[in-house]
Design goal:
Elements lengths: L12 H9 L7 H11 L4 E4 L6 H12 L9 E4 L3 H14 L8 E4 L5 H10 L3 E4 L1 H10 L9 E5 L1 H6 L3 H10 L5 E6 L4 H10 L4 E4 L10 E7 L5 H12 L3 E5 L3 H13 L4 E4 L5 H12 L5 E4 L12 E6 L6 H8 L9 E7 L3 H12 L4 E2 L5 H22 L3 H13 L3 H24 L13 E7 L8 H12 L7 E5 L3 E7 H11 L10 E4 L4
Parallel strand pairs: 1-6, 1-7, 2-4, 2-5, 3-4, 5-6, 8-13, 8-14, 9-11, 9-12, 10-11, 12-13
Antiparallel strand pairs: 15-17, 15-18, 16-17
Helix pairs in contact: 2-3, 3-4, 10-15, 13-14
The chain binds adenosine-5'-triphosphate and magnesium ion (MG).
């Protein structure tokens, strides 16, 4: 029995109500197994595939066991990246919605420590953090360990690989003996088993039985190509399969930045994330991706672990990962919570041996495929066009137009010819728009007022700029009258401005990648939805 109803678990009504609201109908196998085991006081190593709800598997029992009367931290969850700490904290907050007086807090580097200390002082039961910042709070005495009953390592294996072992051991030594220690990941190498022996008691290894490490609902493909064909391969596959959201992994920060610029220049809504950006920049990029303001996230492995974004339909390994484990985690950003997904791997020269290792390690089938040709893309576009036309015809009253066409038929054309001509003309127009977009000549529909185009601008800190500043800076740089610049809403650290469509490129060209002189304003991406 792998999946059961949540109410068959021994959990509170508060949790039942929360999971129902979150749309969970049945438990996932790791939840079926881990929730009772943790409630029963066991130490566990939990291994289950990517996207199968490991967060709730440890989150639910932790929330159940917290003492609301005690305002001291009772659980620490360590995560390898800041983004993941934030995300796990958000998931726990949703699960804790009806658990009044249970508080969770993410703590991570790059965010004001003062603010975190204030929040800790107010009383928090579950602290979710990256090792460095958690250690910092422990040293300062702002995070006390005396009441810690639960210690969780999410993505346990990578925490060891990243050299956090000393920090982890220091924390474990100072947490009271009676604690429960829980390790989770989709991949559990031997190093974790050693750590388990050393720090866990009567540990249970919960391995959700699967012959494959990867999720079956992800279709995996590889393309044997030359290095300089990678970009073409990527854009063709993107154009053909049109994923809602996609993540493209490269092995270095430099590659990520270069590819991002190339994609943006071709009109794709892309942005980059890697460890070289500061926390504000990283938060902003992740925020834009989660909200669909950008559709393609170009990333290093900082985004490979744990990140859960709905509707990521495709993952690309632009460079194959160095490590076979990472393959599992990277492609696991799609095909989550039972959804389907695609993984595309670019294989250059000797990469083919690495690909074989990956296939062997994951026990999964990666199908050989070819870069789609221009005519494949046209055929797909034709199919999409026909579908849209069908839907349109079913839902619109064509009365007046039918009369007009009848007139045309009376003259010299057949109905077939007229339909074909209209279709050709209409598809050519779409094509033109696409080409313009791809060459960066057109902004497409950016949701701006008619005749205007909306530009997305990174403004650093909100309190440093006013709409007047922004208009002044753009006008100053472009020589455009300030009156032409409109609709400014300032959000946390970005803003949208609208400029006349024909001026859009000029404004972008002047400002692209450059801070507007003397201000914190930087035009970051050309378009938004
Ligand atoms: N029982 C459930 N039914 C439906 N959806 C669920 C269930 N449990 C969790 N989810 C959702 O599934 C998604 C993936 O969950 P989660 O991020 O915990 O996966 P994970 O196993 O930790 O994956 P990874 O190995 O990538 O970290 C989340 O959006 C989560 O809210
Ligand atoms: Mg996870």
């Amino acid at each position: 029995m792998q999946k059961i109803k949540f109410n068959e678990l021994n959990v509170s009504d508060e949790i039942l109500k929360a999971v129902e609201e979150m749309g969970f109908e049945e438990t996932t196998p790791i939840q079926t197994n881990a929730i009772p085991a943790v409630l029963d006081g066991k130490d566990i190593v939990g291994q289950a595939q990517t996207g199968t709800g490991k967060t709730a598997a440890f989150g639910i029992p932790l929330l159940e066991e917290m003492d609301a009367e005690n305002k001291n931290p009772q659980a620490i969850i360590l995560c390898p990246t800041r983004e993941l700490a934030i995300q796990v904290s958000e998931e726990l907050k949703r699960l804790a919605k009806y658990k009044n007086r249970i508080y969770t807090l993410p703590v991570y580097g790059g965010q004001s420590i003062g603010r975190q200390i204030k929040a800790l002082n107010k009383g928090v039961q579950i602290v979710i953090g990256t090792p460095g910042r958690v250690m910092d709070h422990i040293r300062r005495g702002t995070l006390k360990l005396d009441n810690i009953d639960y210690f969780v390592l999410d993505e346990a294996d990578v925490m060891l690989d990243m050299g956090f072992i000393d920090d982890i051991e220091t924390i474990l030594r100072d947490i009271p003996e009676e604690r429960q220690t829980l390790f989770f990941s989709a991949t559990i190498p031997k190093s974790i088993k050693r750590l388990s022996k050393k720090y866990q008691k009567k540990s249970e290894f919960l391995r959700v039985a699967h012959e494959k490490l990867t999720v079956p609902s992800i279709d995996q493909y590889y393309y044997e190509i030359r290095r300089h064909d990678k970009l073409k391969a990527l854009t063709r596959i993107l154009d053909l399969s049109n994923p809602e959201l996609a993540i493209v992994f490269c092995n270095t920060r430099k590659m990520v930045d270069e590819l991002n610029i190339k994609l943006q220049a071709r009109g794709y809504l892309a942005d980059a994330i890697h460890g070289g950006l500061n926390q504000n920049q990283r938060d902003r990029v992740m925020g834009k991706f989660r909200n669909g303001i950008i559709e393609i996230l170009v990333a290093t492995d900082v985004a490979a672990r744990g990140i859960d974004v709905d509707d990521v339909e495709a993952v690309f390994n632009y460079d194959l990962p160095q490590d076979t484990d990472y393959y599992v985690h990277r492609i696991g950003r799609t095909g989550r919570a039972g959804k389907s997904g695609e993984a595309h791997n670019f294989v250059v020269g000797k990469d083919i041996y690495k690909l074989r290792d990956i296939q062997k390690f994951t026990q999964s089938k990666i199908k050989r495929s070819e870069i789609p040709s221009q005519s494949d893309i046209e055929a797909a576009q034709f199919e999409q066009f026909s579908d849209e036309l069908g839907t349109y015809m079913d839902s619109t009253d064509l009365g007046k137009y039918i009369e007009l066409i009848e007139d045309l038929i009376d003259e010299q054309y057949s109905a077939l010819e007229i339909a074909a001509a209209l279709m050709k003309k209409s598809m050519e127009r779409e094509d033109e728009e696409d080409q313009n977009e791809n060459s960066g000549q057109s902004f497409g529909d950016t949701g701006a007022e008619p005749g205007m185009v909306r530009l997305f601008i990174n403004i650093g800190k909100k309190d440093k700029v006013s709409p007047r500043h922004i208009v002044g800076a753009i006008a100053g740089e472009t020589g455009m009258p300030g009156g032409l610049i409109g609709a400014i809403d300032i959000y946390d650290n970005f803003t949208f401005v609208e400029v006349p469509r024909e001026k859009g490129h000029e404004v972008l060209q002047i400002m692209k990648d450059n801070y507007i002189k003397g201000t914190k304003i930087n035009i970051e991406a050309a378009r938004s939805k």
